[in-house]
Write a structure and sequence with these properties.
The structure is a homodimer of 225-residue chains.
Chain A (H helix, E strand, L loop, with lengths): L19 H10 L1 E5 L4 E3 L7 E7 L1 E7 L5 E8 L3 E2 L1 H6 L6 E4 L3 E7 H10 L1 H27 L2 H16 L13 H8 L3 H13 L3 E4 L2 E4 L2 H6 L2
Antiparallel strand pairs in A: 1-8, 2-7, 3-6, 3-8, 4-5, 4-7, 9-10
Chain A binds a DNA duplex (30 and 30 nucleotides) through helix 7.
Keywords (chains A, B): DNA-binding, Transcription, Transcription regulation
Organism (chains A, B): Mariniflexile aquimaris
Protein name (chains A, B): Crp/Fnr family transcriptional regulator
DNA sequence: CGCTTCATTGACGCAAGTCAACTAAGGTGG
DNA sequence: CCACCTTAGTTGACTTGCGTCAATGAAGCG
């Protein structure tokens, strides 16, 4: 099993602020898990009792609303942590995590990390920074949900995915999402998302290549009203 | 000027985890500000350079969307802190703060508190907890915005305000909001909010007494679909 | 007593939700 | 290898929630 002290992934998250000794300790009790596309990492309401560090792959964090629809709240890629929020508030998870492609994650049990959080100020300050960043993003999403049209939100989502998660060699989005996923990100019906996407295609803003989507006119998408 | 060490307000927020010495130091450089109803505490984009501790009153935190409408993201009452998020990410404020009634707030400049945040683990862990809680609330709001009707959101808002901020002796909501405020919380047009409110009134769920709103049937509101 | 700001109500149009039919693609077993 | 089934995607038709514009009423206020 790999060692946390040597893992480059930690450079991308708060774990970088842990001391060598702390990392060695964590390394000894962490478990690595391989997760297949579509598999559930943890359920909404589940007591996670630790955090996941994403070594590879990408997943979606979603919440089931009362009407039975899933709302995707955040997407998490290689290098980021999942589950910190619930760890800190000592609650069950408020979100479900599902892999969007094959993943590799390390699980760090609660008791190993909670102590560092309470005693290592550099580490907790780093986690604080990440959480503050997430909170700002969440505020922005609230405003978008409340004030913008489905068409506008979908356009912004496409640009966001391209800019945050990158593209394949053929310029298609590297993250492969179903139409339902798109709908669940922007908060609309699947059919509505489909219609808007095919409208974008008709307008020459995107191309649809097999299951992949390629953005042809980023500026155009940004100008969508 | 009052002294932080003796201020009971701090019991309600993370400041309670500061040591006596830290509080004395903060007390010496804090400034107290009286803010009238409707007054702006800080603007979106303003560099706050510190945090506000709300000693009395209530305010709204909102963000202007590109179409020119304000979206209220959070309401803050006596005992809570404002501006921690921006303090931590070292950015300008992403939100505007406006007093909903007469307020009294203490301003603690950045340089006095940032050090405590980086060295006092109890304190930063407390701030972390508050932020984690805010983040969960934000996630819930995202789901509501994306999946529920205006009618449903307004019903939930009314219940939320009653349960979080309490009622006057005559059972009316203690927080007085304009119709526009309600619209900006649920993310809709003012006229739509008005229509839904008068519908609730017609259905006997609420009463409108002068400028005040009284909830007559909490359960009924919770059942709204 | 006019002026301004907030609340209310009506009329109208459009964005988006819903239901339903149909196609395409992939997978499995006989 | 084909027949069958399942799942994802697509499109049309219909309905409706909600935004917008506009007119009017009510309430404070200098």
């Amino acid at each position: 099993m790999g060692k946390c002290e040597q893992c480059i992934i930690k450079q991308f998250n708060a774990l970088k602020s842990l001391s060598k000794e702390e990392l060695v300790r964590i390394s000894n009790c962490k478990t690595t898990r391989v997760i297949k596309k579509g598999e559930v990492i943890f359920e909404e309401g589940e007591i996670i009792n630790g955090v996941y560090c994403v070594k590879d792959g990408i997943c979606k964090l979603s919440k089931l609303s009362e009407n039975g629809k899933d709302q995707i709240v955040k997407m998490v890629v290689k290098g980021q942590l999942i589950g910190q929020r619930s760890l800190i508030t000592e609650e069950a998870s408020n979100l479900q995590a599902v892999a969007l492609n094959d993943m590799e994650v390390c699980f760090i049990p609660r008791h190993e990390i909670i102590n560092d959080l309470q005693t290592n100020p550099r580490f907790s300050y780093d986690v604080l920074k990440e959480m503050a960043h997430d909170l700002k993003e969440a505020d922005d999403i609230i405003v978008n949900m409340a004030q913008k049209s489905v068409r506008q939100r979908l356009a912004e989502t496409l640009v966001y995915i391209q800019e945050s998660f990158g593209v394949n060699p053929d310029k298609t989005l590297s993250v492969l999402l179903s139409r339902e996923d798109f709908a669940n990100i922007v908060g609309t019906a699947t059919e509505s998302a489909i219609r808007v996407l095919s409208q974008f295609k008709k307008e020459g803003l995107i191309s649809i290549i097999g299951k992949q989507i390629r953005i042809d006119d980023v500026e155009g998408l940004k100008r969508v009203e």
